[in-house]
TrEMBL record:
<keyword id="KW-0732">Signal</keyword>
<feature type="signal peptide">
    <location>
        <begin position="1"/>
        <end position="27"/>
    </location>
</feature>
<dbReference type="InterPro" id="IPR012338">
    <property type="entry name" value="Beta-lactam/transpept-like"/>
</dbReference>
<protein>
    <recommendedName>
        <fullName>Penicillin-binding protein transpeptidase domain-containing protein</fullName>
    </recommendedName>
</protein>
<dbReference type="Pfam" id="PF00905">
    <property type="entry name" value="Transpeptidase"/>
</dbReference>
<dbReference type="InterPro" id="IPR001460">
    <property type="entry name" value="PCN-bd_Tpept"/>
</dbReference>
<dbReference type="GO" id="GO:0008658">
    <property type="term" value="F:penicillin binding"/>
</dbReference>
<feature type="domain" description="Penicillin-binding protein transpeptidase">
    <location>
        <begin position="48"/>
        <end position="264"/>
    </location>
</feature>
Length: 295
């Protein structure tokens, strides 16, 4: 082997060793991240699981916490739960695809029933109905879509367990539809890549209405979900993704609490509602996906 070839071979070998070392270091760091996610989830005080993924880099982080006083079973990223209002992501896609609404600015009429949230007691655009998580407006859209068309899209997109039982306007709130955190991430990644079985413009519209906020150049898209089903089981979701222009991280957080664990007071309900996003934000900041909070 001449000197030039020997030098080239040495460089390639050294590069391979360094690359392997970096991968090993990354693999060794993951358990620390996992422990940190467990600890962050524990700060909520509720049963919970969280998954944070960067498909491009292959980084896959997950954590779980089980409240020792909780009677509900522990959660993991394959635990199936009712989607609650995270289903608005999917029902928006279906309503747009089926021309129930034409765009994000289409007006969805109010049904005239006064409810405790004044912001939803009015006609709303699709974008505002999504932002306010206006259940009655979405129930009206899903009713217009109808059972057969909704079942078609659930099956085609393989959404959760694809089960419509429980009533056309309540199957995602208190019926039998279920989805796992892992399945939520699959849906989100496909939506962001515009690869779901819906028209491209439909998917782009839903991506646009999902924008929650921007922090230091990082765009956060997402949707919350909240439901109380069965014997007082509280289920809370926060799912979405961050995009800083060069890296995309997908996240799904699922919390659950029984009424036995959570006192039936407005304060306890408020704590559960805020905990979904709070623990996720803590994790994203810990991993430096979101910027640190200003002191």
């Amino acid at each position: 082997m001449n000197r030039s070839l020997r030098y080239l071979f040495t460089c390639i070998t050294l590069f391979a060793i360094l690359a392997t070392g970096a991968n090993l270091l990354q693999a060794q760091e993951r358990p620390d991240n996992l422990d940190s996610l467990d600890q962050i989830l524990a700060t909520s005080g509720y049963n919970g699981t969280m998954i944070i993924v960067n498909p491009e880099s292959g980084q896959w982080l997950q954590g779980a916490y089980q409240n020792p006083d909780e009677t509900l079973p522990p959660l993991d990223i394959d635990s199936a739960a009712i989607p609650a209002s995270t289903f608005k992501i999917f029902s928006s896609l279906v309503a747009l695809q089926e021309s129930v609404v034409a765009s994000a600015e289409t007006i969805i009429p109010w049904d005239g029933v006064e409810r405790s949230r004044p912001e939803i007691n009015q006609d709303l655009t699709l974008a505002d109905a999504f932002r306010y998580s206006a259940v009655p407006h979405y129930q009206g859209m899903v009713k217009t879509v109808g059972e057969s068309r909704m079942q078609h899209w659930l099956d085609l997109a393989e959404y959760g367990n694809q089960n419509l039982d429980g009533g056309l306007t309540t199957f995602w709130l208190e019926g039998d539809l279920r989805i796992t955190p892992r399945q939520q991430l699959t849906l989100l990644q496909s939506l962001n890549n515009l690869s779901l079985p819906f028209d491209t413009n439909v998917q782009q519209t839903v991506k646009n209405i999902m924008v929650n906020r921007e922090e230091s150049g990082v765009i956060i898209r997402g949707k919350t979900g909240l439901a109380v089903i069965g014997n007082g089981m509280n289920t809370g979701w926060w799912v979405g993704w961050t995009d800083n222009g060069s890296q995309i991280w997908y996240f799904a957080t699922l919390l659950q609490a029984s009424q036995n664990t959570m006192a039936e007071t407005p304060e306890a309900q408020a704590n559960f509602i805020t905990a979904r996003q709070a623990v996720t934000d803590k994790a994203l900041r810990h991993l430096e996906i979101l910027p640190p909070l200003s002191q």
